[in-house]
Amino acid sequence: MPVLTAGAGLHETLALLTSQLRPDANHKEDMVFLKDVFSERSLGYLMKIHEKLRQYERQSPTPVLHSASSLAEDVAEELQSGPMSSEEKELLHLLTSPHLKAVLSVHDTVAQKNFDPVLPPLPDDFEDELEEESVKIVRLVKNKEPLGATIRRDEATGAVIVARIMRGGAADRSGLVHVGDELREVNGVSVIHKRPDEISQLLSQSQGSITLKIIPAIKEEDRLKESKVYMRALFDYIPLEDKATPCQEAGLPFKRGDILQVVSQDDSTWWQAKRVGDSNLRAGLIPSKQFQERRLAYRMKMGTLPNPKSPKKPVSGLRRSFRLSRKDRQGSSGECSDPGASEFLTYEEVTRYQQRPSERPRLVVLIGSLGARINELKQRVIAENPHCYAVAVPHTTRPKKPHEKDGVEYHFVTKQQFDADILNNKFIEHGEYKENQYGTSIEAIRSIQAKNKMCIVDVQPEALKRLRTAEFKPYVIFVKPRVPESRRRPSVSPCINQYFLQQDEDLQEMRQSALQIDQQYGHLVDRVLIKEDSASACAELQGILESLEQESFWVPVSWVRT
To answer: Average pLDDT, whole number, for the chain?
Structure first.
């Protein structure tokens, strides 16, 4: 039989005892019962907690004395009472220095304090209450953080019920409070006749130790594992401005583009979520997708929200001389996964994706506001590395010039062929310039990717609907120039004043163009590139393209599910 060492812990003893239980004919049921009891995971956790507490008692640092300052003064007086050697003089100098005196004073202050949390004594009538009904006294120690639980008033009984437990909060970490528990007292104060907002305020104001008197739920819900559902937020959310939230302090604020891990969808109205990359372990409340859509639909019905299906204004400043078709068409490139295809923008389920060597490179899509000059940026990056990057060769109906080659500068086709391609939905966008037609086709992109090159296209934002598919997995970059603020200039000649006025109007139009694109299409953008100058923008774009082949990125789940 194995022998326990002197340093064996309780949980090791329990594990050894469990392994030695062998049911015999006479006591088979008893042995099976004991083995089941000793094998309980919760019992093993309690043994480990007990050992940790005992270890803390044995190893917790305790001060040798509480009056180091007085001892230093006594030593200094003793040294000064007679002749001193050089070492004694140095010691006296150290003991009388202001810095060491301050350190010893702080030591004495800390040594005389007890920093362990002090829990209040149990109530006098605790035993009586236990006999009357199943009452549980829960003691928690929390900092300034919220308790991490919300409450509601039961309409039938009027009881104060724990409505939800926020994952990672103080209540959740304790494992002692569960959904459905009835709350009776907080720090000895009865909450039976208090309003839910008064109880929430009482809980939030309690610091340090907090004692709850609870009647456990008849059937406690099993602790659920955290889900691995991730959502990209498509709107900004500020809980303090949301009157519908059950607890504003428990809300999770987020901005459009944030990645949220939804850890619980038990409540169909309010999900629990964490921001990816946030150091806060406690989950917060966010409106569920269904609830947010219902709210937006109501606001639209009441006229306080524009209809998302109504035609959008053309984005100003984009290709003024190139009238592009904005008709929504579905082609052979696959089903559109644009989150804007639904009526309202709320959340988009995403997952991590990294391009594998066997896969075709992702499509890189550039959209730009007025003054971004994205075609120049695209051509410069391709010229510096033509073996890795290329542009989709467009189609045109204009005559071929002597120095041009078909399939290099353009695919030269007849007007009849171009119109037929339009009817067959072969273009992601097309338009007319000086009575000639131009367009970028799906096949032109595929032909670049077939050569294992990364295809870079610059399109109007409307074309993103057609490109956001599992086939292309586009990475969308919004390029906008750095626009300086307009400044007041001294009055000079009318001509110069007119020049400055025109310059300010151009800057204002550039700002408006960028703002309009952000409002209409910002939820589809993966990266914003602020263009200071061509050289720095080119270097930044080059870095983005390299990272697409080496790093993982969040993409819609539908792009990677087979």
So the answer is: 80
- pLDDT tens-digit profile of 249-305? 889 999 999 999 999 888 889 999 999 988 777 889 999 999 999 999 888 888 887
* Dist. CA 240–CA 255, nearest whole Å: 14
DSSP assignment of 66-91: S-HHHHHHHHHHHHHTS---HHHHHH
Tokens of 159: 């009881």
**Residue 489 pLDDT > 60, yes or no?**
no
CA distance 163 to 154: 10
Containing 442, the helix (H) or strand (E) segment is helix 442-450
The model's confidence at residue 221, banded by pLDDT at 50, 70 and 90, is very low
Count the domains in the chain: 5
User: Taking the alpha carbons of 520, 524, 529, 534 in that order, is the dihedral positive or negative?
Assistant: negative
Token digits of residue 165: 């437990």
Check whether residue 327 and residue 431 sit in a common domain: yes
The H or E element spanning position 6 is: none
In whole angstroms, how far apart are CA 248 and each of 59, 199, 265, 287, 433? 42, 14, 18, 12, 55
Q: Which residue has the tokens 């909450």?
A: 191
- Provide the residue range defining the domain that includes 101: 68-78+89-111
Residue for token digits 């953080």?
A: 145
The tokens of 319 are what? Answer: 């290709």
Q: Are 170 and 203 in contact (CB under 8 A)?
A: no
Instruction: Determine the pLDDT at residue 68.
Output: 85
- Position 249, amino acid: E
Residues 29-40, buried b or exposed e (16+ Cβ, 10 A)? eeeeeebeeeee
Residues 424, 555 within the same domain:
yes
How far apart, in whole angstroms, are the C-alpha atoms of residue 375 and residue 393? 13
d(CA 277, CA 554): 13
- Is residue 418 in some structural domain? yes
Rounded to whole angstroms, the Cα distance separating 247 from 255 reads 19
Which residues have a Cβ under 8 Å from the Cβ of 401 and sit 6 or more positions away? none
In this structure, are 142 and 46 located in the same domain? Answer: no
The radius of gyration of the chain's CA atoms, rounded to the nearest angstrom, is: 35
Would you call 312 exposed, middle or buried from its count of C-beta atoms within 10 A (0-12, 13-18, 19+)?
A: middle
- Give the pair of three-digit tokens for residue 555: 């993409």
Q: Indicate if the pLDDT at residue 418 is higher than 80.
A: yes
pTM of structure? 0.60
Q: Given a cut of 50, is residue 330 above it in pLDDT?
A: no
Sheet with strand 395-396: strands edge to edge:
323-324, 427-433, 436-441, 395-396, 411-412
Question: Are 517 and 478 spatial neighbours (Cβ–Cβ below 8 Å)?
Answer: yes
Q: What is the 3-state secondary structure (H, E, C) of 452-475?
A: CCEEEEECCHHHHHHHCCCCCCCE
- Cα separations in angstroms, 239 against 76, 197, 264: 62, 16, 18
**47 contacts 14 by C-beta, under 8 angstroms:** yes
| Distance between first and last Cα of the chain | 54
What are the phi and psi torsion angles at 150 (to 5°)? Answer: -115, 160
> 352 and 233 in one domain?
no
